[in-house]
Q: What sequence folds into this?
C-alpha cells in the first residue's frame, strides 16, 4: 500500500493562478516589437512553463538579456489586470491547510512574482515555503527545486505529491521520486497531461480533497 501523502508541492502559473493570458500577451508584446508578425499565438504556447532564459535563448541568443528585461517589465505592469485564480483555488488551499498538510510552491518564476500572485489570491499565509527560480541552480524538470522543498518541509519522496500543469512539473516530480498530479485545466490540454502519465489527474482543484481522503477521482 502506498504511503500516506502529507506534503503537497504546487506549481504556480497555470496550476493555481491563471496567468495564461498574461504570459501570452507579454510574449506577444515583446516579440512583436522585435520580430513583427513572426510569432502567432500558437507559436507562443510552447513558451509557457520553461524559464525565460531558456525560451529567449532559443528565440535569439544575442538578445536574451534585453528580451528578459522587457518581458519582466510588461508582465509586472499588467499582472494584476490579467491574472486570476482558477476556480476554487484559495478555498481548497485553505481546507488543505486546515487539514494539516505541509504545502509549498515550486515554480520556475522569480520569487517576487510568485509573491505578487499569492497576494492576488490572498494565499500568502497558506504555504510553508516557496521555491522560486532565485532559490535553485536548476529549474524543473531537474529534481533540485522539488528536493529543496522536501528538505525545507522535512518530508520524504514517499509522502510527497507534485501538482502541475506542464511536462516539467510531472517529469520533475518523477525525477525527484515523488508522486505526481496533472491538472485537466492545463492550457496544453487534458490529453497532453494524461500522456505524461501522472499518478493522478485533477478535473478541479477540489479533487485534491477527495484524493487526500482516500477517495478515487
A:
Amino acid at each position: 500500500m502506498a504511503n500516506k501523502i502529507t506534503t503537497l508541492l504546487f506549481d504556480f502559473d497555470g496550476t493555481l493562478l491563471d496567468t495564461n493570458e498574461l504570459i501570452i500577451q507579454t510574449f506577444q508584446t515583446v516579440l512583436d516589437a522585435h520580430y513583427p508578425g513572426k510569432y502567432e499565438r500558437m507559436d507562443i504556447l510552447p513558451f509557457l512553463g520553461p524559464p525565460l532564459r531558456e525560451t529567449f535563448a532559443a528565440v535569439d541568443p544575442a538578445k536574451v538579456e534585453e528580451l528578459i528585461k522587457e518581458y519582466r517589465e510588461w508582465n509586472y505592469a499588467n499582472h494584476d489586470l490579467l491574472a486570476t485564480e482558477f476556480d476554487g483555488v484559495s478555498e481548497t488551499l485553505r481546507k488543505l491547510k486546515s487539514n494539516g498538510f505541509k504545502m509549498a510552491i515550486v515554480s520556475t518564476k522569480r520569487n517576487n512574482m510568485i509573491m505578487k500572485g499569492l497576494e492576488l489570491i490572498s494565499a500568502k499565509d497558506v504555504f510553508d515555503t516557496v521555491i522560486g527560480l532565485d532559490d535553485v541552480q536548476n529549474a524543473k524538470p531537474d529534481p533540485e527545486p522539488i528536493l529543496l522543498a522536501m528538505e525545507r518541509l522535512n518530508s520524504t519522496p514517499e509522502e510527497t505529491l507534485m501538482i502541475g500543469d506542464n511536462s516539467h512539473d510531472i517529469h520533475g516530480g518523477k525525477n525527484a521520486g515523488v508522486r505526481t498530479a496533472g491538472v485537466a485545466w492545463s492550457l496544453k490540454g487534458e490529453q497532453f497531461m494524461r500522456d505524461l502519465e501522472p499518478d493522478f489527474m485533477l478535473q478541479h482543484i477540489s479533487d485534491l480533497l477527495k484524493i487526500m481522503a482516500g477517495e478515487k477521482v
About this structure: Strands lie at 7-10, 17-18, 84-85, 102-106, 129-131, 160-164, 179-183, 200-202. Residues 42 and 132 are 27 Å apart (CA to CA). The mean pLDDT is 95.
